[in-house]
Amino acid sequence: MAGGNAMILRRLTTSLKQQHWMTIAIELVIVIVGVFIGTWVANRNQEAVERRSAEQMVTEVRPGLALFELALASAQDYLATATQYGNIAFAGWAGNPKVSDERFVISAYQASQITQIAMNGASWTQIYGGAKLSQLSDPELRTDLAGVMALDFGQLSLNNIATPYRQHVREIIPQDIQDAIRAHCGDITVKGTAIVTLLPATCDVHFPAERWASAARDLRSEPQLVKELRWHRAAVASFVFVLGIFRQRVQRALDRIDADSKKRY
């Protein structure tokens, strides 16, 4: 291409000297068109490279999105189990005869259990955000991925559900009982993944009946814990609502990625 342009320029110089104006005009048009075509081809090649890079980005981000969705679902299940323990604890404070002292104390403790999301997608914005998103040809996929990356991950902070109830109920329950509950009924990490944590739905811890009765009396002597548990439940409910919004956006992005993948292949 460079040799061709040089030859044209030499002919153009000769034509100028000889004042062959028609030839000059034709040669100029050829030069301009050649430059335009060369630039257009280079731009098209660059756009193709950028599109392939964007598609590769989608391929890379999908496993992370799937893990994130799994972590969100796990947190929802975990907190749902803790909420069930809270129902039993409320019944225990209300003096329901169907709730034994053992179940009351264990449930009061387990109701304070909280979990955090084991990953933070905010880093995706730095790696895959902005420029790469704009290179995606599918506008719906761009919108869905941008929606995930625009999420406020601060809303998933553990501080949002680390309420006074969690602290105060643990100040009342004897340490040996707390240790036993954690040892026998604490968090369970699902084998093969570090992000799925479960809270056992039932818990059996063995202490003499009088030990449970004493711990139950201590809890019932602190009626403010009932109000704090209500507040704790409200905070958890808000947290779970946010988890649901996050899951919807992530799942929508996953569905769009899979749909685009089927179109390509």
Overall 3D shape: rod-shaped
Distance between the termini: 37 Å
Order of strands across the biggest sheet?
A: 1-2
The tally of beta strands, per DSSP, is: 2
Helix content class: over 70%
The major beta sheet can be summarized as: 2 strands, antiparallel
**Secondary structure tally, helices:** 10
Low-confidence residue ranges: none
Structural summary, described in words:
Strands 1-2 form a two-stranded antiparallel sheet. The chain contains 10 helices and 2 strands; from the N terminus they run H-H-H-H-H-H-H-H-E-E-H-H. It has 265 residues and is mainly α. A hairpin with a 7-residue loop joins strand 1 and strand 2. It has one domain (65-264). The two termini are 37 Å apart. It is rod-shaped. Helix content is 74%, strand content 2%.
Task: Set down the secondary structure blueprint.
Elements lengths: L1 H17 L2 H73 L7 H10 L11 H7 L2 H4 L4 H11 L14 H9 L2 H11 L2 E2 L7 E2 L10 H12 L3 H41 L1
Antiparallel strand pairs: 1-2
Helix pairs in contact: 1-2, 2-3, 2-10, 3-9, 6-10, 7-10
